[in-house]
Protein backbone atom coordinates (compact mmCIF):
# COMPACT_ATOMS: atom_id res chain seq x y z
CA UNK A 1 0.00 0.00 0.00
CA UNK A 2 1.05 3.61 -0.48
CA UNK A 3 0.23 6.81 -2.35
CA UNK A 4 -0.34 6.80 -6.10
CA UNK A 5 2.83 6.96 -8.16
CA UNK A 6 5.29 5.75 -5.50
CA UNK A 7 6.08 2.59 -7.47
CA UNK A 8 3.90 -0.13 -5.95
CA UNK A 9 3.19 -1.68 -9.35
CA UNK A 10 6.78 -1.27 -10.56
CA UNK A 11 8.06 -3.07 -7.44
CA UNK A 12 5.49 -5.85 -7.81
CA UNK A 13 6.25 -6.35 -11.52
CA UNK A 14 9.99 -6.29 -10.80
CA UNK A 15 9.55 -9.01 -8.20
CA UNK A 16 7.11 -11.17 -10.17
CA UNK A 17 8.60 -10.86 -13.69
CA UNK A 18 12.13 -9.60 -13.04
CA UNK A 19 11.33 -6.73 -15.40
CA UNK A 20 10.70 -3.00 -15.22
CA UNK A 21 7.69 -1.25 -16.69
CA UNK A 22 8.12 2.46 -17.31
CA UNK A 23 4.35 2.90 -17.26
CA UNK A 24 1.69 0.84 -15.57
CA UNK A 25 -2.01 1.76 -15.45
CA UNK A 26 -2.41 3.52 -12.09
CA UNK A 27 -6.02 2.40 -11.73
CA UNK A 28 -5.38 -1.32 -12.06
CA UNK A 29 -5.71 -3.26 -8.86
CA UNK A 30 -4.56 -6.80 -9.36
CA UNK A 31 -3.17 -9.76 -7.50
CA UNK A 32 -0.12 -11.85 -8.27
CA UNK A 33 1.22 -15.10 -6.91
CA UNK A 34 4.80 -16.15 -6.61
CA UNK A 35 6.33 -19.27 -5.22
CA UNK A 36 9.82 -18.85 -3.81
CA UNK A 37 12.04 -19.93 -0.97
CA UNK A 38 12.81 -17.93 2.15
CA UNK A 39 15.30 -19.27 4.70
CA UNK A 40 15.19 -22.67 3.04
CA UNK A 41 11.43 -22.94 3.34
CA UNK A 42 9.07 -22.76 0.36
CA UNK A 43 6.27 -20.21 0.37
CA UNK A 44 3.49 -19.08 -1.89
CA UNK A 45 3.05 -15.34 -1.63
CA UNK A 46 -0.07 -13.66 -2.95
CA UNK A 47 0.48 -9.97 -3.54
CA UNK A 48 -2.35 -7.52 -3.93
CA UNK A 49 -1.14 -4.46 -5.82
CA UNK A 50 -3.53 -1.81 -4.56
CA UNK A 51 -4.65 1.19 -6.58
CA UNK A 52 -5.57 3.93 -4.14
CA UNK A 53 -7.31 3.58 -0.80
CA UNK A 54 -9.59 6.58 -1.39
CA UNK A 55 -11.21 5.25 -4.55
CA UNK A 56 -11.79 1.76 -3.28
CA UNK A 57 -12.34 2.24 0.42
CA UNK A 58 -14.82 -0.60 0.88
CA UNK A 59 -12.75 -3.03 -1.13
CA UNK A 60 -9.62 -2.10 0.73
CA UNK A 61 -11.40 -2.61 4.02
CA UNK A 62 -12.01 -6.19 3.03
CA UNK A 63 -8.50 -6.66 1.66
CA UNK A 64 -6.93 -5.26 4.82
CA UNK A 65 -9.03 -7.62 6.90
CA UNK A 66 -7.91 -10.59 4.85
CA UNK A 67 -4.26 -9.69 4.35
CA UNK A 68 -1.56 -11.22 6.52
CA UNK A 69 1.12 -8.61 5.93
CA UNK A 70 1.56 -5.08 4.59
CA UNK A 71 4.32 -3.46 2.57
CA UNK A 72 3.96 0.30 3.06
CA UNK A 73 5.64 2.14 0.19
CA UNK A 74 6.52 5.79 -0.16
CA UNK A 75 8.68 7.63 -2.67
CA UNK A 76 12.01 8.99 -1.44
CA UNK A 77 11.41 11.88 -3.86
CA UNK A 78 8.06 12.99 -2.37
CA UNK A 79 7.78 13.87 1.28
CA UNK A 80 3.95 13.85 1.34
CA UNK A 81 3.99 10.15 0.42
CA UNK A 82 6.13 9.49 3.52
CA UNK A 83 3.50 11.18 5.70
CA UNK A 84 0.82 9.12 4.01
CA UNK A 85 2.19 5.83 5.33
CA UNK A 86 1.53 7.04 8.89
CA UNK A 87 -2.14 7.31 7.97
CA UNK A 88 -2.12 3.95 6.24
CA UNK A 89 -0.78 2.27 9.34
CA UNK A 90 -3.54 3.87 11.42
CA UNK A 91 -6.12 2.61 8.93
CA UNK A 92 -4.70 -0.90 9.09
CA UNK A 93 -4.70 -0.89 12.90
CA UNK A 94 -8.26 0.39 13.01
CA UNK A 95 -9.50 -2.40 10.73
CA UNK A 96 -7.42 -5.26 12.16
CA UNK A 97 -8.33 -6.24 15.68
CA UNK A 98 -4.73 -6.94 16.64
CA UNK A 99 -1.45 -5.07 17.01
CA UNK A 100 0.55 -8.07 15.81
CA UNK A 101 0.63 -7.01 12.17
CA UNK A 102 3.52 -7.86 9.84
CA UNK A 103 4.66 -4.57 8.26
CA UNK A 104 7.66 -3.50 6.18
CA UNK A 105 8.43 0.12 5.27
CA UNK A 106 9.82 0.84 1.81
CA UNK A 107 11.32 4.07 0.46
CA UNK A 108 11.32 3.59 -3.32
CA UNK A 109 13.08 5.42 -6.20
CA UNK A 110 16.49 5.40 -4.53
CA UNK A 111 18.00 5.78 -8.03
CA UNK A 112 16.76 9.39 -8.19
CA UNK A 113 19.51 10.73 -5.94
CA UNK A 114 19.18 14.45 -6.71
CA UNK A 115 15.41 14.45 -6.25
CA UNK A 116 15.51 12.95 -2.78
CA UNK A 117 13.23 14.62 -0.20
CA UNK A 118 13.29 12.03 2.58
CA UNK A 119 16.59 11.11 4.27
CA UNK A 120 17.59 7.54 5.07
CA UNK A 121 17.75 8.44 8.78
CA UNK A 122 14.08 9.51 8.75
CA UNK A 123 12.95 6.17 7.35
CA UNK A 124 15.16 4.34 9.84
CA UNK A 125 13.83 6.38 12.74
CA UNK A 126 10.22 5.61 11.84
CA UNK A 127 11.02 1.91 11.42
CA UNK A 128 12.69 1.83 14.82
CA UNK A 129 9.67 3.52 16.40
CA UNK A 130 7.35 0.94 14.84
CA UNK A 131 9.70 -1.99 15.44
CA UNK A 132 9.81 -2.95 11.75
CA UNK A 133 12.43 -3.10 8.99
CA UNK A 134 13.05 -0.30 6.52
CA UNK A 135 14.41 -0.76 2.99
CA UNK A 136 15.35 1.75 0.31
CA UNK A 137 14.57 0.28 -3.09
CA UNK A 138 14.65 1.01 -6.76
CA UNK A 139 12.30 -0.90 -9.02
CA UNK A 140 14.13 0.68 -11.93
CA UNK A 141 17.64 -0.53 -11.05
CA UNK A 142 16.43 -3.64 -9.20
CA UNK A 143 17.85 -2.65 -5.84
CA UNK A 144 16.70 -4.37 -2.63
CA UNK A 145 13.36 -5.43 -4.15
CA UNK A 146 13.74 -9.09 -3.15
CA UNK A 147 14.71 -8.18 0.39
CA UNK A 148 11.34 -6.51 0.89
CA UNK A 149 9.33 -9.57 -0.07
CA UNK A 150 11.60 -11.93 1.86
CA UNK A 151 11.22 -9.80 4.96
CA UNK A 152 7.43 -9.65 4.78
CA UNK A 153 7.35 -13.45 4.48
CA UNK A 154 9.56 -13.74 7.58
CA UNK A 155 7.31 -11.36 9.50
CA UNK A 156 4.18 -13.22 8.46
CA UNK A 157 5.71 -16.53 9.50
CA UNK A 158 6.65 -15.24 12.92
CA UNK A 159 3.31 -13.55 13.62
CA UNK A 160 0.87 -15.16 16.06
CA UNK A 161 -1.84 -15.39 13.45
CA UNK A 162 0.12 -17.35 10.91
CA UNK A 163 -1.17 -20.86 10.71
CA UNK A 164 1.17 -23.42 9.28
CA UNK A 165 -0.43 -25.72 6.74
P1 LIG B 1 2.00 3.07 -8.21
O1 LIG B 1 0.92 4.06 -8.49
O2 LIG B 1 2.45 3.16 -6.78
O3 LIG B 1 1.66 1.67 -8.61
O4 LIG B 1 3.29 3.54 -9.07
P2 LIG B 1 3.85 2.92 -10.44
O5 LIG B 1 4.50 1.61 -10.19
O6 LIG B 1 2.79 2.97 -11.48
O7 LIG B 1 5.01 3.97 -10.76
C1 LIG B 1 4.72 5.36 -10.96
C2 LIG B 1 5.82 6.00 -11.80
O8 LIG B 1 7.06 5.95 -11.07
C3 LIG B 1 6.08 5.28 -13.11
O9 LIG B 1 6.36 6.24 -14.09
C4 LIG B 1 7.30 4.44 -12.85
O10 LIG B 1 8.06 4.21 -14.00
C5 LIG B 1 8.05 5.28 -11.83
N1 LIG B 1 8.86 4.46 -10.92
C6 LIG B 1 8.45 3.40 -10.17
N2 LIG B 1 9.46 2.89 -9.47
C7 LIG B 1 10.55 3.64 -9.76
C8 LIG B 1 11.92 3.61 -9.35
O11 LIG B 1 12.38 2.79 -8.54
N3 LIG B 1 12.74 4.59 -9.87
C9 LIG B 1 12.30 5.52 -10.75
N4 LIG B 1 13.16 6.43 -11.19
N5 LIG B 1 11.02 5.58 -11.16
C10 LIG B 1 10.16 4.65 -10.67
MG1 LIG C 1 -0.09 0.87 -9.42
From TrEMBL:
CDD domains: Ras (cd00876). It comes from the Eukaryota. Keywords: GTP-binding, Nucleotide-binding. GO terms for cellular component: plasma membrane. It is found in: Cell membrane. NCBIfam families: small_GTP. This is Uncharacterized protein.
Amino acid sequence: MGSGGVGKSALTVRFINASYLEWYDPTIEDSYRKQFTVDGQACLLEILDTAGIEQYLTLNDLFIRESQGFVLVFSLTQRDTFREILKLRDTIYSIKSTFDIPIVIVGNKSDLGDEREVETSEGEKLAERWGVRYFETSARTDTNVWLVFEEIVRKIRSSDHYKRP
